[in-house]
Amino acid sequence: MCSLVNRAVDRRWHSGDRVKVVTEKCWNFLPTTRFAGVAIVIHVPCSQHMKQLQRAALRLSCSSDNPLSQLQSAPETAPIPEMSSLSSHTMRDWLWSPEEVKDTPSVRAGMSLANEAKLRREGIRLIMEVGTGVRAKAWPTIGTAAVYFHRFYMFHTFQEFPREMTAMGCLFLAGKVSETPKKCKDIVTAAQNVFPSVYGQKNRNAFVDEIMGIERVLLQTMKFDLQVDLPYQYLIDYSKKFKLTKPEINSLVHTSWTFVNDSSFTVLCLIWEPQVIAVALLHLSITVRKVNIGLPECWWDEYIANLSNSLIDDICHKVLDFYSISKEEKMDFMPPRPFVLGQTPIMPAAAAGPSS
Q1: φ, ψ for residue 35 (rounded to 5)?
Q2: Of 122, 186, 261, 356, which has fewest CB within 10 angstroms of its CB?
Q3: One fold for both 105-227 and 232-329?
Q4: Based on the number of CB atoms within 10 Å of its own CB, is 99 exposed (0-12), middle (13-18) or buried (19 or more)?
Q5: What is the sign of the dihedral through the CA atoms of 2, 45, 77 and 98?
């Protein structure tokens, strides 16, 4: 019912425990999650809780046969569904255990885990650079597209669906869902200008058709469960309690915002809720900037109970590891020039629409 604690609970961590999530005016009982045997409880503001219930109700009302409707009558003790296939993957199960993230369809089809991780990073780079080219914002459009991209490859292989087309389909769909739509032809123009070596030889009309086609596959894969919760708003909300001046808070949030952007290159969004990611990367910013926020060491207990320092450190190291890896990859996979639609001159080849 509420997507704030909607992880696909690792069946090795959780065996049907219930947890009470406190709101301002109501009690809501949701399955807890466990990491190394420790229950993690997320405290939900009532207003946010109601907004998510409204969005869920709206999605349910749009389709009489929506698979989400099954959740309304499901017993509280219903077993956690198997996640080996798309058909058994319910709408609330958009988070996986670390072991499951390593056992993707691409890996089972013979791709190395390192190569799959590299293709994921390249796909996110395509989304970010082309998204910037069409003036899309990190929150919500680019962030949503990145989550779509990572989720998609938990069900499909890179061998069957090349990352360059999936990335553009995710960006196109995310624009619609986040109410910041971008014309498909503008995405094509930006893509061919930003990455001519990847997209430059594609026929424009065929390129548009391919994006439309992959969008349909995305919709079917996610069964139209398209609302994505991102860490950005939580950075703002949590930082308000810090005993700092407004400029100091803004500076800290700015640094954390950059970390959240870069976390899209990792698979953290497949493993942890956005609240957990927000806490971890705020903690990383506080550590890097050596700021005294005037709160207890575990300041996040007000929002997420039983979240250990070791877990936060693990999340932070995932982002820091990306920085180490990206130093070697940037030379091989970066756009040749910055491009912003309406400001940068369009390359003649892209304007002419070369044949494929």
Answers
A1: -130, 120
A2: 356
A3: yes
A4: exposed
A5: positive
CATH code linked to domain 105-227: 1.10.472.10
| Structural contact between residues 151 and 270, judged by C-beta atoms closer than 8 angstroms | yes
Using DSSP, state whether 123 is helix, strand or coil.
Answer: helix
CATH topology of domain 232-329: Cyclin A; domain 1 (1.10.472)
Q: In this structure, what are the phi and psi dihedrals at residue 222, rounded to the nearest 5 degrees?
A: -95, 5
Is 19's pLDDT higher than 70?
Answer: no
Phi-psi region of 16 (alpha: psi -120 to 50; beta: other; left: phi over 0): left
Share of the chain above pLDDT 70, in %: 67
Using CA atoms, how far apart are residues 193 and 124, in angstroms rounded to an integer? 17
The answer to which of 18-27, 141-150, 151-160, 264-273 has the lowest mean pLDDT is: 18-27
Q: Where are the domains of the chain?
A: 1-64, 105-227, 232-329
pLDDT, tens digit, for every residue of 209-250?
A: 999 999 999 999 999 999 999 999 999 999 999 999 999 999
Q: What is the pLDDT of residues 316-339, one digit of tens each?
A: 999 999 999 987 776 455 655 566
